[in-house]
Amino acid sequence: MATAKSKKKSNTSKEDLLHYYREMLLIRRFEEKAGQLYGMGLIGGFCHLYIGQEAVVVGLEAAAEEGDKRVTSYRDHGHMLAAGMDPKGVMAELTGREGGYSKGKGGSMHMFSVEKHFYGGHGIVAAQVPIGTGLAFADKYNENGRVTFTYFGDGAVNQGQVYEAFNMASLWKLPVIYVIENNQYAMGTSVGRSSSTPEFYTRGEAFGIPGEAVDGMDVLAVKEAGERAIAHCREGNGPYILEMKTYRYRGHSMSDPAKYRTREEVQKVRETQDAIEHVRELLLQGKHADEDELKAIDKEIKAIVNEAADFARESPEPSLDELWTDIYA
Amino acid sequence: MATEILMPALSPTMEEGTLAKWNVKEGDTVSAGDVIAEIETDKATMEFEAVDEGTLGKILIAEGTEGVKVNTPIAVLIEEGESAEDAAASVEKAHAGTHEQGAGHPAPSKVVDEAGPGGQAPAPAVPDDPEIPEGTKMREMTVREALRDAMAEEMRADERVFLMGEEVAEYQGAYKVSQGLLDEFGAKRVIDTPITEHGFTGLSTGAAMGGLRPIVEFMTFNFAMQAIDQIINTAAKTRYMSGGQMSVPVVFRGASGAAARVAAQHSQDYAAWYAHIPGLHVAMPYSAADAKGLLKTAIRGETPVIFLENELLYGHSFEVPELDDFAIPFGKARIWREGSDVTLVSFGIGMEYTLKAAEKLAEDGVSAEVIDLRTLRPMDTAAVIKSVKKTNRCVTVEEGWPVGSIGNHISAVLMQEAFDWLDAPVINVTGKDVPMPYAANLEKHALTSVEEVLEAVRLVTYR
Ligand SMILES: Cc1ncc(C[n+]2csc(CCOP(=O)(O)OP(=O)(O)O)c2C)c(N)n1
Ligand SMILES: [Mg+2]
Questions:
Q1: For chain A, what is the radius of gyration of the CA atoms?
Q2: Is residue B407 classed as helix, strand or coil in its secondary structure?
Q3: In which band, very low, low, confident or very high, does the pLDDT at B425 lie, cut at 50, 70 and 90?
Q4: Greatest distance between any 2 Cα atoms in chain A
Q5: Which one, of B177, B185, B187, lies nearest residue B159 by Cα?
Q6: B179 CB near a chain A CB, below 8 Å?
Q7: At what angle do helices A291-314 and A14-39 cross, to 10 degrees?
Q8: Rounded to whole angstroms, how far apart are CA atoms B382 and B438?
């Protein structure tokens, strides 16, 4: 399956390109800020950054419609921002404050937004796969024409419950898009060391689920693939698999010895495949924007992120009574 | 020879049923497989087939009889030349007296007395800690190093021992417990797995049945919930189900309990969960010496062991004796402090709070005896009882949830075994009854504290 970068710059509008640029940049700057706040002790526990993988969620969100659902793992900040959740609320959850999406009770790995149809933020590898399948079950039951994006990693792909979910999704023709974010590593384990067959997009074959590999560093290719998958689902054909070939630039979480890959490997991807750089070039080459305009956008994004960080710092800690609330309905 | 036909159990929950209809009458010839009666169970009406052949000599239970207990003789088959009346009479005689005893009410068994409170299976007698000969050099090391050394020593001693888990080999362990093991033992014996807990737990259980001695590291025990079925349904029960033919000598180890702000799905304490399961041994050491000595015993034993470590304790240092062979028996508590006013019982990271509390109490003139259970199954309740008979008061300390806790069990044991010696109700100091929150201030309050231990002691000592 081809994974080359799409060279189609002409038929993507200026507005769309600027939108992708803005969205991806927001995620990257937000994550960089989160890394800083972690270093300052304002964020604790596990914190998994999405830097490098931005094109995946931004491309798919561009293909989605209002009301479509999404669910993912603990590496969830990018998904939430792309779904339109408020950076302030996300950052304040990272600092464990009252103004966070879960009132400070969930943290980096566990955030939810009913309003934006974001169903978490799950800490147990692959647990979100049957959950996403169940959301799709509900959509089919309700005949509402929605689809669910169920994101999981190249490590998660080996959990048994993934295949239990695949079988049911195919059997019952559920409108679920399985998005395998293949960033090539599960903590320190490369795909080659964990998987008997590394072509994850074929993992649905035994269940009759079509799949394709996509250049996950190319937001335009991601969007196109997303549209195909969505059309397949909405037409009632059941699930679809998108294997996104992507890369995480940072460590698995904040404490990562990084001995499992070389600096050069990371550097090379950053220099040759970076998703934001790619769109930036398309904008400049297509004369959709000049350096000054892009600088203005950078500034604008920085301001949003700084505002979020200030909010996250100033929002008070949850009141101690919150310990005992929200346990039962 | 006459053959009895007994009321069958036709569903797993059936204790009695209605003999709805006989399809044969006395004097008929019956072959195996003939449907001879219809029986209504708690679930459905079922056809009842004969398993033997012969002549239906006598029907003992008439059509339409309700409430026929499982295993009651309902008819007799006779061979050629036998008299039906004689056969029936002998059957009735053999079963005289069985009717009073309802199927659902087994006779009180002596096991209850022998096993002690709660009817726990009797634990074998346990020897003391191995003697540490005078002049033995002590070496300060972390719990992490002690665990690694225990595995390395046992792997050197026994080719069948291997380690398997996520990131245990090349990464040197997510929490660095297996540091250096890949270098020494190679990839055949130190194995990185895919993220597939239920799979490799079942696989290691099978490997243990196949004669190997797996050590399975769960990155943390939170992820062992993916594998809980193989742990409980296979590893724990196989010896029993096979009538003792087959053991499953596997050690499941890893961190359990709260770390630091890793929130609800990564902070659960599993002490009480696994301590509940007959067929498992459960250790939850506090010190490095105990971690080492207990892990060596766990690896050598025939029983599947749940070995609960704690992420925060990995870096703590303790004195460990430099002995060639330092194995500590399961089922033997360690007395950390002797005292006369109150007994504090804890284990694992709970000991941190407990020892600090005991020190504060000493400053205030209260003499606390501190017991570290070290293993939760078997559990050295005798040590607790003995101590309480001296102090007359008891507080238990653990980080897990309060309902169905280890403290609850100890309270029940004391109530049954040392009621007359108790001068105050036993208090269980535990983690709060909530999922673990992420926020720093909330997490602190969800855990227990030295203050809470002191408060409990104040209550039981009426001060
Ligand atoms: C059931 C379970 N096992 C292990 C872990 C620990 N763990 C957290 S993330 C991770 C790696 C997952 O890798 P992948 O699926 O590729 O996702 P990525 O982190 O690359 O986004 C592991 C082993 C866990 N959270 N849950
Ligand atoms: Mg990955």
A1: 19
A2: helix
A3: very high
A4: 57
A5: B185
A6: no
A7: 40
A8: 39
| Interacting residues of B351 by C-beta distance below 8 A, sequence separation 6+ | B286, B336, B370, B372, B397
CATH number of B334-460: 3.40.50.920
pLDDT 10s digits, A282-307? 999 999 999 999 999 999 999 999 99
Give yes or no for residue A156 CB within 6 A of ligand 1. Answer: yes
Of A256, A321, A303, residue with least CA distance to A46: A256
Length of chain B: 463
Coil/strand/helix, residue B3:
strand
Query: Judging by DSSP bridges, how do beta strands B73-78 and B54-59 pair with one another?
Result: antiparallel
User: Which three-class secondary structure state does DSSP give residue A57?
Assistant: helix
Is pLDDT at A272 greater than 50 in this prediction? Answer: yes
CA-wise closest residue to A189 among B43, B174, B128, B132:
B174
Q: Number of C-alpha atoms within 13 angstroms, CB side, residue A17?
A: 21
Residue A319 lies in a domain: no
Could you tell me the two tokens for B115? 């096993």
- Could you tell me which CATH number the domain at B3-101 has? 2.40.50.100
- Report the distance separating Cα A302 and Cα A306, nearest Å: 6
The ipTM estimated for the assembled molecules is 0.93
Nearest ligand by distance to the CA of A155: 1
Q: Which residues of A touch B166 (CB under 8 A)?
A: 187, 189
The three-class DSSP label of residue B319 is: strand
| CATH number of the domain within which A194 lies | 3.40.50.970
Nearest by CB to residue A158, choosing from B192, B195, B264, is B195
Query: Which residues share a beta bridge with B372?
Result: B334, B346
Signed CA dihedral, B197, B202, B204, B205: sign only:
positive
Statement: B138-321 belongs to CATH 3.40.50.970: yes
What's A32's DSSP letter? H
Tokens matching residue A295: 């600088």
* A206-252 residue pLDDT tens: 999 999 999 999 999 999 999 999 999 999 999 999 999 999 999 99
CB B282 within 8 A of CB B303: no
